[in-house]
Design a protein that fits this description.
Number of strands of chain A: 11
Strand content of chain B: over 45%
Shape of chain B: globular
Number of helices of chain A: 0
Distance between the termini of chain A: 36 Å
Strand content of chain A: over 45%
Distance between the termini of chain B: 34 Å
Largest sheet of chain B: 7 strands, mixed
Radius of gyration of chain A: 13 Å
Order of helices and strands of chain A: EEEEEEEEEEE
Helix content of chain B: under 10%
Structural class of chain B: mainly beta
Oligomer: heterodimer
Chain lengths: 109, 112
Amino acid sequence: KNEVEQSPQNLTAQEGEFITINCSYSVGISALHWLQQHPGGGIVSLFMLSSGKKKHGRLIATINIQEKHSSLHITASHPRDSAVYICAVQKGYGNKLVFGAGTILRVKS
Amino acid sequence: DTAVSQTPKYLVTQMGNDKSIKCEQNLGHDTMYWYKQDSKKFLKIMFSYNNKELIINETVPNRFSPKSPDKAHLNLHINSLELGDSAVYFCASSQEISNEQFFGPGTRLTVL
């Protein structure tokens, strides 16, 4: 079993909907990253967090260290949010990243 | 200005050949990484370098040899290419080991 599990694997939403993507992990970590991979393949870092909550525009990321769980929320979703969202935990020597399998999000207009 | 750049963007080659992928960052970061994304889009760390020193070597076959001539560059040389090496390879950089990472555009390697 992967150390990082994401759900759902696929998500289709209507424009304007509130979206939640979940990430659970089974190891001790120093931080958790949320990444976005565009349809063209490029990867962008959205958030890096080790506690609490962070907000950037319409995106909100939360983490509960005790429950080993993080969520990424998108408010007022838009077709341009369509992408793969990847959770990664930072752990161990060198703080290497271990990735989840990604959530494929499609927002329809 | 491109922050993290990789060349080439696409690489098609025959089995058994030796090839290199170059990565450069102009962010002044001291840590660089190589990741492999397989056909199922799963990302995995291969190597990381901090100030030109190897920090992570993640059970990668020794046909893969990273080289960091300076803090701004981390190149990946692959000997005796195999079919299973076909993937997208991403370079990334960060300021220190535990900070946000900035990714290059990726190099799609196809081994025939």
